[in-house]
Amino acid sequence: MISPTTKVVCISASITNSADLEKLVATVNAEFGGADVLVNAAGVLNGRGNIGEGSIDGWWNTMV
To answer: Based on C-alpha coordinates, what's the Rg of the chain?
Structure first.
């Protein structure tokens, strides 16, 4: 459960788009004065299906 005093901001951005990243950094700096922790939760989804049916290259493309 998040404390009622916790500030949360949702920002949609693509790591492949430099303008999105600049907006993300500017928003984080404006709202929080910077970032203390970064979590890499980026990935791509190329199609759908069972993970066991995909290729190793597809796995790395998704996870990196």
So the answer is: 16
